[in-house]
Inverse folding.
């Protein structure tokens, strides 16, 4: 064994930390300008920092009502405070030294990088357990090549998805743990923490839990993992609910860890614990008991919580038609452009191929059960892409372990060659293929939709410029009031100005979302009534902003379409903005 190989083997934790630090430096440098301009590009990122500010200014720990949207009532956000903790901690430490502005910029830059360390460590640990003690470097490198997933860990991406993805990789590490009790505890705690944050990964958590049960059915020696999982998942979920469930989430709601899901989890964990104690010696008996337990838990959920049988958002048909069905990330992958399809499917498919090969090679080894769990998760994640493209980051990270297996063996094969050119170019080429980077070379040759290109260039420009601090500065300098504006501009407006807005893109804010859609789609008099209903004194629009294209195309004679064409109304007084402003602003009489 060479000195390099020995260092890779003995100092793997230090090497992972150094790799993480190098990635942090690169990502911070890459996003430095955006950090300076506090360019929180996603509505959820803006809402997250607004929630943290409200908490630091005295709002209660369990009070997650956002009072700057839909005033004076506000609305209850379905998140928890768990992800607020690192953001608030960084701000509290740095604010006395550098001031509030610098402290917030540092928080939104640093906080998303923390779960990236957990993701790299978990992926590397899984590779060490299933592939080779030195293969962690390949798996960690592949995580950094998952561009769709990596976007959830970049500076400014302070929403909760990065943490949930990191806990998903920790769950996979638990499935691969040869120490059965420790693996069960890891899966249980990681699953509970993910659910405390939000329900986005609930399907993956259910599949991981089912794979633990199936492993016990076919391999009785897996009993310690099942027992540890049942206890840790149930206890951690109960503690997480007690510590983090907001006042609103203590009601039987369907879109968060509420009594609905907590009771179902506790019943399911109790059933698994009971099965592990009965532990029949023959697998058909274990299978029959597991099916019976699943029927009881499903029946309990179905009969006890009938309001949660459909989508957890529980939105009205009208809200789904006007708003939710138009959200891009809620559409399936086959409705996306060619680049998105290739980027979303490459690593998951490569991971499936690698995991399938791993099952064949380990068919006489106990690790075959770990690989089977990973294949089931991989197949499920690819299937989820054909439901919603938002499953892309999870599908990529689930595919990392199988891709690392394939890459490790290809790299080993090329490294054993006697020819230097084969070793060098073969190793580089193998990594480029399994990481999906090689597919990017095809992007320039993919068909482009050039229809109405000039129009969509205007839309892209408006999407970039309207949420910026310079564009919003003139509005921020006006006396505080309630502003009637687009749904997707609401969170940004309340974050970087002292104004309030009517709506933001959150399903619990559904009535206010419908009001905005009705206002811009309907006749001008209806818009005036809605503005008065919410006590709005300013009307703010950004022509060609993505949301505006929905109103102008759907209602060519509606209120927004008339505004865009320059029509005036006696109840709207134009407010002069600096030359070159992307906004149009009126005072509502």
């Amino acid at each position: 064994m060479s000195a390099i190989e020995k260092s890779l083997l003995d100092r793997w934790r230090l090497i992972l930390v150094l790799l993480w630090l190098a990635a942090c430096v690169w990502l911070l440098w890459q996003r430095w300008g955006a950090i300076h301009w506090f360019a929180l590009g996603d509505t959820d990122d803006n809402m997250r920092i607004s929630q943290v500010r409200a908490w630091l200014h005295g709002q209660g720990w369990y009070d997650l009502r956002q009072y700057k949207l839909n005033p004076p009532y506000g609305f209850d956000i379905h998140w928890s405070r768990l992800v607020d903790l690192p953001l608030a901690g960084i701000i509290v430490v740095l604010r006395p030294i550098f001031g509030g502005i610098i402290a917030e910029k540092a928080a939104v830059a640093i906080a998303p990088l923390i779960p990236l360390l957990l993701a790299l460590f978990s992926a590397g640990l899984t590779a060490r357990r299933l592939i080779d003690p030195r293969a962690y470097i390949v798996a960690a490198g592949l995580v950094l090549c998952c561009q769709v997933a990596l976007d959830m860990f970049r500076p400014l991406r302070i929403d909760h998805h990065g943490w949930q993805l990191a806990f998903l990789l920790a769950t996979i590490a638990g499935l691969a743990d040869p120490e059965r009790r420790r693996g069960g505890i890891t899966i249980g705690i990681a699953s509970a923490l993910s659910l405390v944050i939000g329900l986005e990964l609930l399907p993956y958590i259910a599949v991981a839990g089912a794979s633990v049960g199936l492993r016990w059915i076919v391999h009785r020696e897996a009993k310690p993992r099942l027992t540890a999982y049942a206890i840790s998942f149930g206890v951690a979920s109960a503690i997480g609910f007690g510590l983090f469930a907001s006042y609103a989430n203590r009601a039987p709601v369907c879109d968060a860890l509420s009594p609905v899901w907590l009771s179902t989890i506790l019943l399911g964990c109790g059933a698994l614990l009971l099965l592990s104690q009965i532990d029949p010696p023959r697998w058909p008996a274990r299978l029959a008991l597991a099916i019976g337990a699943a029927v009881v838990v499903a029946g309990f959920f179905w009969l006890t919580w009938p309001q949660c049988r459909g989508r957890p958002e529980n939105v009205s048909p009208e809200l789904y038609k006007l708003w939710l069905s138009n959200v891009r990330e809620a559409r399936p992958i086959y409705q996306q452009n060619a680049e998105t399809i290739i980027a979303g499917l490459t690593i998951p498919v490569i991971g499936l191929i690698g995991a399938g090969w791993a099952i064949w090679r380990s068919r006489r080894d106990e690790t075959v059960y770990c690989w089977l769990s990973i294949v089931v998760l991989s197949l499920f994640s690819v299937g989820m892409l054909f439901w919603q493209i938002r499953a892309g980051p999870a599908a990529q990270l689930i595919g990392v372990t199988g891709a690392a297996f394939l890459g490790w063996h290809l790299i080993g094969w090329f490294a054993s060659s006697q020819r230097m050119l084969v070793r060098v170019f073969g190793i580089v080429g193998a990594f480029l293929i399994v990481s999906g980077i090689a597919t990017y070379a095809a992007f320039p040759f993919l068909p482009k939709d050039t229809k109405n290109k000039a129009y969509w260039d205007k839309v892209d420009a408006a999407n970039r410029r309207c949420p910026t601090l310079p564009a919003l500065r003139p509005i921020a300098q006006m006396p505080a009031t309630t502003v009637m504006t687009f749904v997707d501009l609401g969170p940004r407006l309340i974050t970087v100005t002292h104004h309030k807005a009517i709506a933001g893109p959150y399903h619990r804010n559904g009535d206010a979302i419908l009001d905005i859609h009705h206002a811009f789609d309907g006749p001008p008099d209806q818009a005036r009534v809605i503005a008065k209903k919410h006590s709005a004194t300013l009307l703010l629009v950004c022509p060609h902003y993505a949301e505006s294209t929905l109103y102008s195309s759907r209602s060519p004679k509606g209120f927004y379409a008339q505004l865009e064409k320059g029509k005036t109304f006696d109840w709207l007084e134009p407010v002069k903005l600096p030359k070159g402003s992307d906004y149009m602003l009126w005072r509502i009489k």
